[in-house]
Specification:
4-stranded antiparallel beta sheet, 4 strands, Rossmann fold, elongated, binds magnesium ion, 6 helices, binds adenosine-5'-diphosphate, alpha+beta
Length: about 150
């Protein structure tokens, strides 16, 4: 997987929040550090296709992510700081629900959910209601949903 930012710029009126960013990311873990107001959230919002750049491009394996549209979002997983869920859903129900929203076929979803619950160490809590989870366990459920696709 290759994610490439080229001359990526975002302006809000006459204010430039992201200024000609060029960067290539391949498989691995990346951290985005910067002072308050540096443009991190603006960049993440463009990366999630929620915000259109003023100029420049973001490509995924050579294809513009805004042109890929749904094909790109099929690959995308995202865990925001605060995430919404139905508190009465169990961990398993929550993940199956997100999988359905992502358009993952039920047979595939059931297998994937089981694997991910084990991967994030929630096997014992799979039948627990989301509202009963500790902060850290909620976080793990959030990580699992981000990895569904
Ligand atoms: N929708 C917006 N309209 C106008 N200015 C914005 C908007 N979103 C962010 N900004 C401005 O862009 C700059 C970068 O913001 P942001 O990306 O949230 O920074 P960070 O996440 O790095 O703290 C800030 O000065 C912020 O006020
Ligand atoms: Mg921010």
């Amino acid at each position: 997987m290759k994610l490439k930012f080229e001359n990526l710029t975002k302006e809000f009126g006459d204010f430039t929040a992201v200024d000609h960013l060029s960067l290539t990311m391949t498989n691995g873990v990346y951290g985005l550090l910067g002072v308050n107001g540096a443009g991190k959230t603006t960049l993440m919002r463009m990366l999630c296709t929620l915000l259109k750049p003023t100029s420049g491009t973001i490509t995924c394996n050579g294809r513009d992510i805004f042109e890929m549209d749904g094909d790109y979002r099929k690959l995308l997983g995202y865990l925001p700081q605060e995430f919404g869920f139905y508190p009465e859903f169990t961990v398993q129900e929550y993940l199956l629900y997100i999988a359905a929203l992502k358009g993952i076929r039920p047979v595939v979803a059931r297998r994937r959910v089981k694997e991910l619950i084990a991967k994030v160490g929630l096997t014992k809590a799979a039948g627990k209601k989301m509202k009963k989870l500790s902060g850290g366990m909620k976080r793990r459920a959030g990580i699992a949903q981000a990895m569904l696709n």
